[in-house]
Amino acid sequence: xxxxxxxxxxxxVRKKFWLLPIIIMMFLFGGLIIVTQGSAVAxxxxxxx
Length: 49
Description:
Blueprint: H1 2-14, H2 19-36, H3 42-48
């Protein structure tokens, strides 16, 4: 959790709010890959990308 807090402080102090959409999308795609890795939905997800 300290990594997230430190990242938020960096973004807030340095006014780098344009990084937020990039970070959010990275977490979403990473979570999607982890969730679908062992399921039957995985082949359909990989065809989308």
